[in-house]
Specification:
Blueprint: E1 2-3, H1 17-27, E2 31-34, H2 42-51, E3 56-60, H3 71-84, E4 89-96, H4 104-120, E5 125-130, H5 133-140, E6 149-151, H6 158-165, E7 170-174, H7 185-192, E8 198-200, H8 222-232, H9 237-251
Parallel strand pairs: 1-2, 2-3, 3-4, 4-5, 5-6, 6-7, 7-8
The chain binds zinc ion.
């Protein structure tokens, strides 16, 4: 299995990161991908990836919730990392109008700039989107044919899934939300999303799956996501593992 989205560099893992990593390996997690948040987290992302070579891989990006009036000057130093280090994706980037809509235009501009980085460096994008699909598509549609990546943390409707799947170079990232009692994903996914378009993730330390809901999430819990997918797609766990891993490798083509 691959956990395609974990904030393993977060301070909440400082006390026991080695144990977290050992538990992930023990349940069969083969790789973990780390999305960046802003200019202050890059060193931490790179540090964890250097400590676990061949296992953890870094992304570079500016999270939409971090975008403010100074985003242009904050983005500048980030771009220099693209030529000095190797990243497997641009992320996480996107649109988030859930809590705050003040920087709607700025979020769109920041996303557009970073999509251009992705094109320039031939990298996939890790897209975060909350309450902002129209605004997201406004930015992405000119790049629809060339761009590849993951729509991370998918929790939408059938209609939204269909619109996202039109982006043929993209996978949908499914995490612990699929195990939540009120989630509609167990109906939405099998009816419109083929398994060939799904990658697994945890988004740890957030969004712990049942039965760990409310606790700190970690990569080993991607197994709970796999088990739920095996139930809703009615196939063996080994098939879920194999197909979603293959899908991840297809999108993250820069993986060494
Ligand atoms: Zn995230």
């Amino acid at each position: 299995m691959i956990d395609t989205h974990s904030h393993l560099y977060d301070k909440v893992f400082d006390v026991d990161r080695a144990e977290v990593m050992a538990r992930a390996k023990a349940v069969g997690v083969e790789k973990i991908f780390l999305p960046n948040e802003d200019e202050t987290t890059i060193e931490a992302v790179l540090h964890v990836c250097e400590e676990y070579p061949g296992y953890c891989y870094p992304m570079l990006g500016f999270h939409p919730e971090c975008v403010d009036a100074r985003f242009r000057e904050r983005l500048l130093p980030m771009k220099t990392f693209l030529s000095s280090h190797s990243f497997i994706a641009i992320g996480e980037v996107g649109m988030d109008l859930y809590w705050d809509q003040t920087f709607r235009k700025e979020q769109q501009e920041a996303l557009d700039i970073q999509v251009q980085w992705a094109m320039e460096y031939d990298l996939p994008v890790m897209i975060h989107c909350r309450k902002a699909y129209p605004e997201l598509f406004e930015v992405l549609s000119p790049y629809q044919k060339q761009l590849t990546g993951v729509f991370h943390c998918f929790e939408g409707t059938e209609k939204e899934a269909e619109a996202l799947l039109e982006y043929e170079g993209f996978m949908l990232g499914v995490n612990g939300i699929v195990t939540f009692k009120k989630s509609t994903l167990p109906q939405v996914l099998p009816s419109v999303v083929p398994l060939s378009r799904i990658v697994m993730e945890t988004d740890s330390p957030y969004l712990s799956p049942v039965p760990f809901r409310g606790k700190r999430n970690e990569s080993s819990y991607v197994r709970q996501v796999a088990m739920k997918l095996s139930e809703i797609y009615q196939c063996d766990l080994s098939e879920i593992d194999a197909v979603t891993t293959k899908n991840a490798i297809k999108v993250f083509k820069r993986l060494p």
